[in-house]
Amino acid sequence: MSILVNKDTRVICQGITGKSGAFHTRGCLEYGTKVVAGVTPGKGGQTAEGLPVFDTVEEAVAQTGANATMIFVPPPFTADAILEAVDAGIEVIVAITEGVPVLDMVRVYEVVRASNSVLIGPNCPGLITAEECKIGIMPGYIHQRGKVGVMSRSGTLTYEAVWQTSSLGLGQTTCVGLGGDPIVGTSFIDLFKLYEADDETEAILMMGEIGGTAEEEAAAYVKEHVTKPVAAFIAGRTAPPGKRMGHAGAIISGGKGTAEEKIAALEAAGIEVAQSPADMGAAVKRALSR
């Protein structure tokens, strides 16, 4: 098993005729993902990367049976692209776009949560079920089929964790980049529920960062509901006070959301905390050996 996507997932790309959409569609096809079409309003009837292009997501779904989408449209249009995918009944929506206005996501978030769709992102690298389906921009070649569920607010940390777990022979089930914005479609808790129910996932690695309260909330959930070994890493531990971080969601306000608070909450929940980025794979091994 895996979570969210597998070898049978049928993917479209919204924005396939743009430079980024075309490039990463090609990468997903090379990985073996079943990308079946693209969508760009006004360019229906054309082809891109050898795939048919439709004017609307609804048309693409009707013609190809697509059930997932990756979105590479400019920030001002991303909210509407997400809502169009929800209206068309797409099950997994992956919004890669960075710079989506926060107020747009306020509007989109509640609509998505009330639907049957799952939104990953925005401002994320995407998700990948190792050796089955890649939707996004992550380097596929470092992934190896295995037993660790990986989730992160940081794309590059995801890649580092994947490299380490592959090198240690642990491998991964599904890796999910949640996105670094203040409002994203899927939370750590949402994914803990899925990994806990997945037979193939034997351990879970969570990578958070300073700012917000998502990691503390996840720790409380793990303590009450997760039976599998969990390891975690918090980025930003050595960030100097007042230093602006790269992610919009990494904002410490009112003294809340510090690395120390998050690490204390994780350890209190019985989670094995990696002491540095180089320790993430080893932390998973320690969690498994408990």
Automatic annotation (TrEMBL):
<feature type="binding site">
    <location>
        <position position="43"/>
    </location>
    <ligand>
        <name>CoA</name>
    </ligand>
</feature>
<protein>
    <recommendedName>
        <fullName>Succinate--CoA ligase [ADP-forming] subunit alpha</fullName>
        <ecNumber>6.2.1.5</ecNumber>
    </recommendedName>
</protein>
<dbReference type="InterPro" id="IPR033847">
    <property type="entry name" value="Citrt_syn/SCS-alpha_CS"/>
</dbReference>
<feature type="binding site">
    <location>
        <begin position="17"/>
        <end position="20"/>
    </location>
    <ligand>
        <name>CoA</name>
    </ligand>
</feature>
<dbReference type="InterPro" id="IPR005810">
    <property type="entry name" value="CoA_lig_alpha"/>
</dbReference>
<dbReference type="InterPro" id="IPR016102">
    <property type="entry name" value="Succinyl-CoA_synth-like"/>
</dbReference>
<dbReference type="GO" id="GO:0009361">
    <property type="term" value="C:succinate-CoA ligase complex (ADP-forming)"/>
</dbReference>
<dbReference type="GO" id="GO:0004775">
    <property type="term" value="F:succinate-CoA ligase (ADP-forming) activity"/>
</dbReference>
<dbReference type="GO" id="GO:0006099">
    <property type="term" value="P:tricarboxylic acid cycle"/>
</dbReference>
<feature type="binding site">
    <location>
        <begin position="96"/>
        <end position="98"/>
    </location>
    <ligand>
        <name>CoA</name>
    </ligand>
</feature>
<feature type="active site" description="Tele-phosphohistidine intermediate">
    <location>
        <position position="247"/>
    </location>
</feature>
<keyword id="KW-0436">Ligase</keyword>
<comment type="function">
    <text>Succinyl-CoA synthetase functions in the citric acid cycle (TCA), coupling the hydrolysis of succinyl-CoA to the synthesis of either ATP or GTP and thus represents the only step of substrate-level phosphorylation in the TCA. The alpha subunit of the enzyme binds the substrates coenzyme A and phosphate, while succinate binding and nucleotide specificity is provided by the beta subunit.</text>
</comment>
<comment type="subunit">
    <text>Heterotetramer of two alpha and two beta subunits.</text>
</comment>
<comment type="similarity">
    <text>Belongs to the succinate/malate CoA ligase alpha subunit family.</text>
</comment>
<dbReference type="InterPro" id="IPR003781">
    <property type="entry name" value="CoA-bd"/>
</dbReference>
<dbReference type="InterPro" id="IPR017440">
    <property type="entry name" value="Cit_synth/succinyl-CoA_lig_AS"/>
</dbReference>
<feature type="domain" description="CoA-binding">
    <location>
        <begin position="4"/>
        <end position="100"/>
    </location>
</feature>
<dbReference type="Pfam" id="PF00549">
    <property type="entry name" value="Ligase_CoA"/>
</dbReference>
<comment type="pathway">
    <text>Carbohydrate metabolism; tricarboxylic acid cycle; succinate from succinyl-CoA (ligase route): step 1/1.</text>
</comment>
<keyword id="KW-0816">Tricarboxylic acid cycle</keyword>
<dbReference type="InterPro" id="IPR036291">
    <property type="entry name" value="NAD(P)-bd_dom_sf"/>
</dbReference>
<dbReference type="Pfam" id="PF02629">
    <property type="entry name" value="CoA_binding"/>
</dbReference>
<feature type="binding site">
    <location>
        <position position="159"/>
    </location>
    <ligand>
        <name>substrate</name>
    </ligand>
</feature>
<dbReference type="InterPro" id="IPR005811">
    <property type="entry name" value="SUCC_ACL_C"/>
</dbReference>
<dbReference type="GO" id="GO:0000166">
    <property type="term" value="F:nucleotide binding"/>
</dbReference>
<dbReference type="GO" id="GO:0004776">
    <property type="term" value="F:succinate-CoA ligase (GDP-forming) activity"/>
</dbReference>
<keyword id="KW-0547">Nucleotide-binding</keyword>
